[in-house]
Specification:
single chain, Oligo-1,6-glucosidase, domain 2, binds 1-deoxynojirimycin
C-alpha cells in the first residue's frame, strides 16, 4: 500500500505523544517507585491535556541497572511495576479515553540476566550466537586476557567489551556492562524479536518506540577507531534498513505508530527510516539539536548554547526531512536529557516564559510533538548538592571519570549537576503535599524543592499556567491543518538569538518567532496577521520581549 505525503502528514501530524518515565510518574504501592496502576489513576489528567499516545518507558523484568533499559524478559511485567492484569487494565482504560499505548522496545541489547545471555555464558553455542562474542587473542588466559577486540568506548564510559574468563571470549556492550549487544546478523535473533512485537500486538498495543535502533547492525569487520569512540562504524550500520524492514514485516507492525531513537545519525538515514515508501518506521528522534551546548561535541563539559547552530539544525532537519518524505519527532525533553527550560533558558527570572517559549517553538513545527512528563508543568532540573543524591549509572560513572581526567570533585560535580540524566528523572510533581503526591513512601529519587509551587494541581487551576499553555498548543495542532501538514520554511532574522519559521498551507500562513534570550530582540513585521498563540498577553510591535514565543496567522 502506498502512502502519500499528505496522508502521512494527516495521520502523524495531528497526534501528540506524552512520555511517561514509569519509575517517576505515580506510585500506588508505597515502594517509592511509580507503577502501571499509577498511570491508570492519572489517565483523566492525560486525557484532559489532550494527548493521543502514551510512550511508557520499559516496565519489563529487569535488574534495573539502567532503570529498565536492561531487559531480562520482553514479554512479562517487572514486579515493582505491577502485573500483567495491571497492564491489561491500563490498556483498556486508556483505550476507553481514546489514548493509545506506545511500548518501549529495547532490542539493541538485553540484560545479562536474560535467559539467552545466561545460556550463552554456560557455553550453549545457539545462544553464544545471539550476542556479539569474540574470541580472545591467541594465547590469552583468564589471568592475562590481552587487548579487547577493539578500542570502542561504551556510551556509559570505559571500553565497550567485557572479558568472560570461563569462555575466554569478549562480549560487546555499547552501554552498561550488564547490557549485552544482540547479534542482529543472526536470523534467529531477528525472529525472536519480531515475536515480541507480535506478543504485544496481541494485547492490543498499537504503537512502539525502538530504543537506539540505528545501532543494531554492526560491521562485519571489527576495527579500532582512531578518530572517535567507534560510533561511526555501527551507527546507521550496514544492514540497518534491511533489518528494520524485516522486523516490521515479521512483527506485523506496518502502519502502526512507531518511532526510532537514532543515536548520532544522519539526515539521509532518517529520511530512509521514516519515508513510508520504505515500510520502516513512522518517525525518528535525532539528537543533534540537543548537542548545541556540548563544547567540541563533548557532553561532559559546559558551554552556553549556540542558538545560531540550533536554528540551522532545526531548519535543515525540518526542511530536508519534508523534501525527502521523512517525518520528525519533535522534542526537547526525555528521560536522558536535563530539563530544557533550566538548560537553555533562564528559569530563575523567567520561568513561565522560558518553559512556554520552548514548547511553542517545537509544537508548531512539522512533525509529531512529544511531551515528557512534567515538561507541561515547567518542571526544572534538580537542586541537588551532593553526588549521593544521584542514582543514574552514567552520572555516577562520569563523576568518577571526570576526576580521573583531572577535574576537582567540585568541578566534576558542577558538570554532573548540569548534565545528569537524573535532572529530568525526578518524580512528577502532582501537588504540594509531601513528596508531591508521587508516593506515600520514600521516593527512589529526591524531588526538586520547587514542587510546592510547580505542580499539576496548582497549574490545573490557573488558566495562565505553563500547563494551560501546553494544553492550548495541543488544541491548536488539533484545530489547524496548517500545523498538521503545512509546509515549513525557516526565516532569516536580524538577531542571532531568535529562531523564526513559517508554516504555509494554501492561503494560510503562520509565522513563529522565538526569542532565546533575556533581552529584547528585533521582531519580523507581521502586518495583517492575528495572534495564534503567544506567551505574552499583550502585543508589542517590532520587538520580541525576553524569552517571548509568538505565533501569528494570516488566513
Ligand atoms: C536510550 C535510552 O533512552 C536510555 O535511557 C538508555 O540508557 C539507552 N538507550 C540504553 O538502552
Amino acid at each position: 500500500m502506498k502512502t502519500t505525503p499528505t496522508e502521512q502528514a494527516l495521520r502523524l501530524g495531528s497526534k501528540v505523544v506524552y512520555q511517561i518515565y514509569i519509575k517517576s510518574f505515580q506510585d500506588t504501592t508505597g515502594n517509592g517507585m511509580g507503577d502501571l496502576r499509577g498511570i491508570t489513576t492519572r489517565l483523566d489528567y492525560l486525557a484532559d491535556l489532550g494527548v493521543d499516545y502514551l510512550w511508557i518507558t520499559p516496565f519489563f523484568p529487569s535488574p534495573q541497572n539502567d532503570n529498565g533499559y536492561d531487559v531480562s524478559d520482553y514479554c512479562a511485567i517487572e514486579p515493582i511495576y505491577g502485573t500483567m492484569e495491571d497492564f491489561d487494565e491500563l490498556s483498556r482504560e486508556a483505550r476507553a479515553r481514546g489514548i493509545g499505548l506506545m511500548l518501549d522496545m529495547v532490542f539493541n541489547h538485553t540484560s545479562t540476566e536474560h535467559e539467552w545471555f545466561k545460556k550463552a555464558l554456560s557455553g550453549d553455542p545457539k545462544y553464544l550466537a545471539y550476542y556479539k562474542f569474540v574470541d580472545a587473542e591467541p594465547g590469552a588466559t583468564p589471568a592475562n586476557p590481552g587487548k579487547p577486540p577493539t578500542n570502542w568506548e561504551s556510551k556509559f564510559g570505559g571500553n565497550a567489551w567485557e572479558y568472560v574468563p570461563s569462555l575466554n571470549k569478549w562480549y560487546l556492550h555499547l552501554f552498561d556492562v550488564t547490557q549485552a549487544d544482540l547479534n542482529w546478523d543472526n536470523p534467529e535473533v531477528r525472529k525472536e524479536l519480531s515475536e515480541v512485537l507480535r506478543f504485544w500486538r496481541g494485547k492490543g498495543v498499537n504503537a512502539f518506540r525502538f530504543d537506539v535502533v540505528n545501532l543494531i547492525s554492526k560491521p562485519a569487520v571489527l576495527e579500532d577507531d582512531y578518530e572517535g569512540d567507534g560510533r561511526r562504524f555501527y551507527s546507521d550500520g550496514p544492514h540497518i534498513h534491511e533489518y528494520l524492514q524485516e522486523l516490521v514485516r515479521l512483527g506485523d507492525i506496518d502502519g502502526l505508530m512507531t518511532v526510532g531513537e537514532m543515536s548520532s545519525t544522519s539526515l539521509e538515514s532518517c529520511i530512509g527510516y521514516s519515508n513510508p515508501a520504505n515500510h520502516e518506521l513512522s518517525m525518528v528522534f535525532n539528537f543533534h539539536h540537543l548537542k548545541v551546548d556540548y563544547p567540541g561535541g563533548e557532553k561532559w563539559a559546559l558551554a552556553e548554547p549556540d542558538i545560531v547552530g540550533l536554528r540551522n539544525l532545526f531548519g535543515t532537519w525540518q526542511e530536508r526531512m519534508t523534501a525527502g518524505g521523512g517525518w520528525n519527532a519533535l522534542f526537547w525533553s526525555n528521560h536522558d536529557q536535563p530539563r530544557p527550560n533550566s538548560r537553555f533558558c533562564d528559569t530563575d527570572h523567567y520561568w513561565y516564559e522560558s518553559s512556554t517559549m520552548l514548547g511553542l517553538c517545537t509544537h508548531l513545527m512539522r512533525g509529531t510533538p512529544y511531551i515528557y512528563q512534567g515538561e507541561e508543568l515547567g518542571q526544572t532540573i534538580t537542586d541537588y548538592t551532593s553526588i549521593d543524591q544521584y542514582r543514574d549509572v552514567e552520572s555516577l560513572n562520569y563523576y568518577r571519570i571526570l576526576q580521573e581526567r583531572g577535574y576537582t570533585p567540585e568541578e566534576a560535580f558542577a558538570i554532573v549537576h548540569a548534565r545528569s540524566r537524573d535532572d529530568g528523572r525526578t518524580p512528577m510533581a502532582w501537588d504540594a503535599s509531601e513528596h508531591a503526591g508521587f508516593t506515600h513512601g520514600t521516593p527512589w529519587l529526591r524531588l526538586v524543592g520547587n514542587y510546592p509551587t510547580i505542580n499539576a494541581a496548582a497549574e490545573m487551576e490557573d488558566p495562565h499556567s505553563v500547563r494551560s499553555f501546553f494544553k492550548r498548543l495541543i488544541g491548536i495542532r488539533k484545530a489547524e491543518e496548517v500545523i498538521q501538514r503545512g509546509d515549513v520554511r525557516f526565516l532569516d532574522v536580524p538577531s542571532d538569538k531568535v529562531i523564526a519559521y513559517e508554516r504555509t498551507l494554501g492561503d494560510t500562513r503562520v509565522v513563529v518567532q522565538c526569542n532565546f534570550s533575556g533581552d529584547e530582540q528585533p521582531a519580523l513585521a507581521t502586518e495583517g496577521s492575528e495572534v495564534l498563540v503567544s506567551n505574552y498577553e499583550d502585543e508589542s510591535a517590532g520587538v520580541l520581549r525576553p524569552w517571548e514565543g509568538t505565533a501569528r496567522i494570516w488566513r
